[in-house]
Amino acid sequence: MAAMTKPVLHILLLGFSIFGLCRLAAADPLAATAPVRDIVSLGEAFFFDTSLSRNRTQSCATCHDPERAFTDSRDNGTGAAVSLGDDGISLGDRNAPTISYASFTPAFHINDEAEYIGGFFHDGRAATLVDQAAGPPTNPLEMALADKSAVIARILENPSYVGALERLFGRSTPADADKLYEAVCQSIAAFEKSPPFAPFDSKYDRYLRGEYKMTKLQELGRQLFFSDLINCSSCHLLNSSPLYQQETFSNYRYHNIGVPVNIAVRKKNGVGIDHRDQGLLENPAVDDPGQSGKFKVITLRNVAVSAPYMHNGIFRELRTVLLFYSKFIVSNEANRNNPETGKPWGKAEIEETVNLDLLQKGQPLDNSHLTALLAFLETLTDKRYEHLLEK
Predict the structure, then answer these.
(1) Are residues 176 and 214 both part of a single domain?
(2) Any alpha helices (H) in the chain, and if so which ranges?
(3) Digits of tens for pLDDT over the chain (391 positions)?
(4) Domain closes at, from 197, 225, 255
(5) Exposed, middle or buried: residue 146 (CB in 10 Å: 0-12, 13-18, 19+)?
(6) The overall pTM is greater than 0.85
(7) For residues 388 and 391, what is the distance between their CA atoms, to the nearest angstrom?
(8) Quick one: 139 and 276 in the same domain?
(9) Does residue 136 sit in the same domain as residue 216?
């Protein structure tokens, strides 16, 4: 965990402005002739290249839009709860998480307390950022290319890619399928480690640097968040100090917090409402039934602009998320129903492993405290996304 205290790797893009090449690539990948000068700019080109999907309609940026805090805001008939595949028909079963600050996530491992930590996707099945980049191009519900060789064929269509791969990874790379695919994934990961993904320039960061003064409401929310009165910091802190300037607001552990089935999504994606997402237990490296239904703790960076929420996108509003947690502390008429539907919250998708010991910690909050906490969570929004708060 000590490695997580290091700053994000800042690799400067040379020769053109950030997102300059990617916009050209997104419009017409085969026409992307701007020089690729380093691994970050090559990864940027791959990240926005729709030709790396079966029907040439989807790129990494489709589900991780840099204008929307690297999330998928398309409605998709599900209120953006899950993503639409390259075929224009297939719907996933989990919400596309933000990849803001993703490079701070530790590799998937078990700590000394026998807890699973880190990894990528909601179940940690990709151990590293490079491993994660390898998945979507061949996922039939996402970019849907048949296999790695199909991805490689698309890469080799583009002479600028071939030249960049030879120069950056060695002349033999285009002729070596495994080496080429690894180079593609390493390049995308390098781009995801670049400054736009983790600027640490939110109001909270500026407050820590003495560049911003919290409002009274934001300051109350900050004090509540870091206090023992509520239980946010049990999971959403990596470091013990509230004055740590590169806090990602996740301890990267896994918990079952009793999230209900998203029935609306299940009716649309064909999975069926009786299916139960096993979460961490679906990770090939995990065979302990006690891990069923657990999902990785998300970062709270940009949380106010990355709705909908939970691993299945079941809640549209951040306030609803806070009220959902509150129902475990106080079970009364006011907490009985989901305010978005007016109906009962619903049973946990996997009831057997819900961590009630964790969920029942803390004190109930009144509406004024909930409002203050929301105000503080908004201060975790990167500067470039603050305009989204108005929406």
Answers:
(1) no
(2) 20-27, 39-47, 60-63, 129-134, 148-156, 159-169, 177-192, 203-208, 216-225, 263-269, 318-326, 356-359, 367-378, 386-389
(3) 333 433 333 333 333 333 443 433 333 333 344 456 799 999 999 999 999 999 999 999 999 999 999 999 999 999 999 999 999 999 999 999 999 999 999 999 999 999 999 999 999 999 999 999 999 999 999 999 999 999 999 999 999 999 999 999 999 999 999 999 999 999 999 999 999 999 999 999 999 999 999 999 999 999 999 998 888 989 999 876 666 678 999 999 999 999 999 999 999 999 999 999 999 999 999 999 999 999 999 999 999 999 999 999 999 999 999 999 999 987 777 688 999 999 999 999 999 999 999 999 988 888 999 999 999 999 999 999 999 998 6
(4) 197
(5) exposed
(6) yes
(7) 5
(8) no
(9) no
Residue 380 identity (one-letter amino acid):
L
Q: Tell me the CATH number at 379.
A: 1.10.760.10
State the Cα–Cα distance between residues 261 and 263, nearest whole angstrom. 6
Provide the 3-class DSSP secondary structure of residue 116: strand
User: Whole domain around residue 318: which residue ranges?
Assistant: 203-389
CA–CA gap between residue 300 and residue 322 (Å, rounded): 13
Domain count, the chain: 2
